[in-house]
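Subject: Predicted fold for Deoxyuridine 5'-triphosphate nucleotidohydrolase, 180 residues

User T.R. writes:
Posting the sequence so we have a shared reference for the thread.
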Amino acid sequence: MTGQPRQPVDVLVLRLDPAMPLPAYAHPGDAGCDLRTAEAAEIAPGERVVLPTGLSIALPDGYAAFVHPRSGLAARYGVALPNAPGTVDAGYRGEIKVIVTNLDPRETVRFERFDRIAQLVVQQVEKARFHEVEELPGSARASGGFGSTGGHAAARRDDPAQHSDFIAVGTDQNPDLRGQ
Ligand SMILES: O=c1ccn([C@H]2C[C@H](O)[C@@H](COP(=O)(O)OP(=O)(O)OP(=O)(O)O)O2)c(=O)[nH]1
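User M.O. replies:
I've generated the structure tokens; pasting them so everyone works from the same file.
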């Protein structure tokens, strides 16, 4: 199925750090453009830092930008964003910052200036009008929440007979998941 290619939305960018490259998509189909750190940083295991990107943006009304983690950094080094995805409001004119944490239990992570640390996804967002009611309309899920459909590995240990609809992947068996 092919659709009409959507026109990109125009976003104004102010370089607070004149040497910082403008945000750019690495490939045509990418959802996020790279965000780079304007400062070198060392993050010890369990530590958290707030890194400047040297960029401010002005999004059109009705849009927001979301600061997402980079999967490669997460898989290789345990780098995570504790607030992921960070929300950049349309009205925000300050510097975009990235809150980075090192979840690796042993290794310190070092970033050099201009290293790619996160990605920014620009999206249209709806504004909701909330209407208070006495009762909500029915639904198939109703109030079933948090794990109500079952099927997670932790539950299987408690009662294997109840959860036979999945295969638990041990981190020691799958080399790609080691250290995560
Ligand atoms: O990863 C992030 C998340 C947010 N921001 C900026 C843009 C956003 O518009 C502003 C406020 O973020 P948020 O609303 O998530 O923070 P808050 O703690 O709820 O602060 P506030 O009370 O100012 O809304 O901080 C970033 O630069 N990076």
